[in-house]
Amino acid sequence: MKYAIRLLTIMFVFVASASMAAQLPDFTELAEKSGQAVVNISTVKIVKNQRNMQQFFRQGPQGQHPFGDFFDQFERFFGEQGQGVPREQRSLGSGFVFSADGYIVTNNHVIEGADSIKVNLQVDKNGDRSYDAEVIGTDKETDLALLKIKTDKPLPFLIFGDSDALRVGQWVMAIGNPFGLDHTVTAGIVSAKGRTIGAGPYDNFIQTDASINPGNSGGPLINMDGQVIGINTAIVASGQGIGFAIPSHLARQVIEQLKEHKIVKRGWLGVSIQDVDENSAKALGLDVARGALVSSVTAGDPAEKAGIKAGDVIVAVDGVSVADAGDLTRKIGDLLPGVKIDLSVWREGKTVKIPLVLGERSAEKVAQGRPGAPGSQGEDVLGLSVRPVTEAEAKALELEQARGLLVVEVSEGSKAAQNDLSAGDVILEANGKAVNTVKALRAVIEGDGKEKGVVMLLIKRQGRNVFRTVPLP
Description:
The protein has 473 residues and is α+β, with helices and mostly antiparallel strands. The chain has four domains: 37-148, Thrombin, subunit H (Beta Barrel); 163-261, Trypsin-like serine proteases (Thrombin, subunit H, Beta Barrel); 270-360, Roll (Pdz3 Domain), CATH 2.30.42.10; 379-471, PDZ domain (Pdz3 Domain), CATH 2.30.42.10. Helix content is 23%, strand content 36%. It is built from twelve helices and 30 strands. The strands form six sheets. Strands 7-6-1-4-5-9-8 form a seven-stranded antiparallel β-sheet. Strands 24, 25, 26, 27, 28, 29 and 30 form a seven-stranded antiparallel β-sheet that branches. It is elongated, with a radius of gyration of 29 Å. The chain starts with a helix and ends with a strand. 35% of the residues are buried.
């Protein structure tokens, strides 16, 4: 009896294993067809060898060499000599053909700064063919680049799929040249969507456990229909099975613009925004933490012209909900300058619709250093020592006039310290009301603040407006 039961158990395990194996996808045909359009990209950059003999003798093992003055005098009369023999710095990456006439997609970081770019195609059984590549355009903000090679016959190519339709758990395949190993195929699943990894303002990566390594950058992430749903671009160096790909929804728009205009144009509102947390939502009367909170509006930009104000929460663009600040940035970046849109804005307890014509995104302004806070004492509120801003301080604090309360000191461990208030901040508003005196701030706290259980402060910091929310007991 025991023997029979053991035999049945073995048979059950065998049948179950065979059934599971039958359900696993077969990547052979997909790899063969898609692989023909995947390319190896090799670059050469000419760099100067900075470690020359003159530098060796100038810098001794313990610091400044005794002959350093000699070389200073020599350079003064004869100019700097011996800049080092130029040498070639080589790197490898991946890419794929996306049109039969030779347009190729890759990462910007694969080809950035290169003096020459070679593209190697696996075109037939006779081996690879090498082409010189021209850079059509690049976009640093999404780390994408478009190349072009001249070819005398149509090339096999891949098409973009719909990354928005992807579901976590779906099978995907990556093809590339990890560590210089040509046309390496790996497979896995979609591990997550919408990942933010700090790579730029348009972070929205697909995470996959398909093996991605150095050299895979720029290669395609392919679905089971043979469509490109992502461009492999980043890895977690300290982890295994964690790779990131730019979603095709974003990549396709960028590549089409680079092909047509050689540059990427994006819509622009002219606002500083931040996420709405639970405390801010409570202070603003929102049912849930959602949307993008406007902390400041740039004079003369589209938002200011349309009437957007600091303290507004942008909750939708053309009727499509905005989840957070990053989501709004991506939605506006997907649109072209000159496009007319409708913003749904939460203001003073209700939603208003504001029409607006987008401007064109320009380079980010460099943040200026925060001025030091004067040392005189102020009155204690919320664990903050605050006092009115003087006329003499207004200019240094980048205020048009003397207004608001200067934070002189923040008590360690206070709610204010825990919620990122710091010395040198200027409190301009509390729960939407101007506060130019300590009495006015206390009145807001005792009234509207206690009623809502939270006070949201509009502060001026480093020349920019930001909101910080402090919960009340």
